[in-house]
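Minutes, project check-in
Item: structure for the 194-residue chain
Input as provided by the requester:
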Amino acid sequence: MKDNRHLTRIGFGVSLFLLVLLHFLKPEFNPLTRNLSEYANGKYGFLMILFFLFNALGFVGMAFHSYRIFTHRAYRAIASFLFLVCAFSAVILSIFPLNLIDSPSNTSSYIHIQTAPMFLISEIVAMTVFTIRLRFERPYKPHFLPTITYAVCTYLVFILFLLLVRDPNYTGLVQRMLGFSIWLWLMNSSFRLT
């Protein structure tokens, strides 16, 4: 499928637009302390649901992309599978939105909280597998350096995320930093390599 670039670019581009729009539409949400998923509550909550669905579309595109460009069967299968896990997780996150942190938990929030780590870990591992294999794919070898640079930045932010995610004063900030660094890697991969 040669047009997978449209899936990734539309998916990740629209999802970023929706997320930025939500920050303007809901200025009462403190970005330092509020989880991104909390935007699913209230008047504009449907935009957060669309955000997850467009992310899923982008990850389906990355799965097709991995399958198309990698010559090594194992890397092709692993990267494609992990990107499909990301897509599936994003759909689950959209179906089961998170309640506001200071409100009582429910089944939807519980499923969301259990799915979020699977989403994050599959993103990081898929990014790692994709980046490692890229070095050995001759037509894409020149793109390895920027791709590994974005990946290393994401790993550093991921370490910061692990250190600060339990601090309620910085939960939202580190979540946004990690999401943005992953988004930069995804955009690099979908724009440069298709």
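Outcome recorded: The two ends are 11 Å apart (CA to CA).
No further action items on this chain.
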